[in-house]
Amino acid sequence: MDFGYAAEDEAFRLEVRAWLDEYAKDAQDRRGWERVLGKAGWIGLGWAEDGYGNRRASLTQQVVWAEEYARSGAPARSGHIGEKLLAPTLIAHGSEEQKARFLPAVAAGDELWCQGYSEPGAGSDLAGVRTKAELGADGNYWITGQKIWTSLAHEADWCFVLARTDPESSRHHGLTFLLVPMDQPGRVEVRPIRQMTGTSDFNEVFFDGARARAEHVVGGEGGGWRVAMSLLGFERGVSTLAQQVGFAQELGRVVRAAVETGAVGDPVVRERLVRQWAELRVMGWNALRTLGRSGDAGAPSVAKLLWGGWHQRLGELAVLVRGAAGGVGPQEWSAAAPYELDEAQQLFLFSRADTIYGGSDQVQRTIIAERVLGLPREPKGVV
């Protein structure tokens, strides 16, 4: 299956590649890099609206940008949550005032966002959130509760929070989508979560009477579930293809390691490497098949199932082909840096979470069963 790049798309590719070759090599500070991208108009290519400092680009050109960005080795983005999740949600559900306030800052790379969805006891079960927001006499919402596994909360300026505004409600009723500033000392606390890799990519976020202005409610009070579901529909799209470019690079490193160590001489290892390659091609074709389509309730869940398991198996292979060296850490340890991991070990440990975060495999299968196949709904436990 060929995506069908036109001549203008390939011309766009050359422009993108030349720009990244010139600027990406000097990108070290991630927040500063977002501003460089914003100044050049590269943030918001896929938005349905322009005029906020972003360029307009066709769907194929968005794919080209994502592919070239992944191949360039440019830094992992800090602004993708605002660009890929919040902005399309505001365009679909926000007021003109909200779009005018927040979209230019995202497009410029000036304001970074995080996502306040998951909670202890309500990780993949979004309807089970317990964070509360109460409308005060001063016209502001006051938020109390805890979010967890919040990516980039330690860098974010704002957080979009799903909270319960009707204390008598349950499940997906009575939820509201609020835009909350993170700079509220004593009211918003961020605690990094140390992972097996030794890094802290996720955070706990505690809200203790944090303020959100009434005009920063998206979709109206009680409309949070509709807005939240719409946002999840934006979560996977063009970025899936860029992700697969990165996967291909990781697979290439694993294959080279297998050749260097001689592990490729094992027919079982060879079979597993070929299977990884074939499955990656299938994921690419599936992404192209569903790209730009709307109304396919199961497509994001199918994609998540495919890549989560694939990446986890690649991590296992990355350590396997290294042999005994794959389980050996550095010779020198210190309290400041208790351990350091090579690329294969990092891939293996981090990918253990791939079948959990973003919706566990079990939840994805339930969504596919109920919303796509029309099977009877899974019985809910009695609380």
What does this structure look like?
There is one protein chain. The chain has 383 residues and is α+β, with helices and mostly antiparallel strands. Helix 4 packs antiparallel against helix 5, helix 4 crosses helix 6 and helix 8 runs antiparallel to helix 9. Helix content is 44%, strand content 13%. It contains 11 helices and 8 strands. Strands 1-4-5-8 form a 4-stranded mixed sheet. A 4-stranded antiparallel sheet has the order 2-3-7-6, with no helix packed on it.
Which structural class should the secondary elements be placed in?
A: alpha+beta
H-E string: HHHHHEEEEEEEEHHHHHH
Shape: globular
> Residue share in helices?
40-55%
Number of helices: 11
Enumerate the strands of the largest sheet in spatial order, edge to edge or round the barrel: 1-4-5-8
- The low-confidence runs, each spanning 5 or more residues with pLDDT under 50, are none
End-to-end Cα distance: 49 Å
Largest sheet: 4 strands, mixed
How many DSSP-defined strands? 8
β-sheet strand percentage: 5-15%
- Please compute the radius of gyration using only Cα atoms: 22 Å
Mean pLDDT: 86
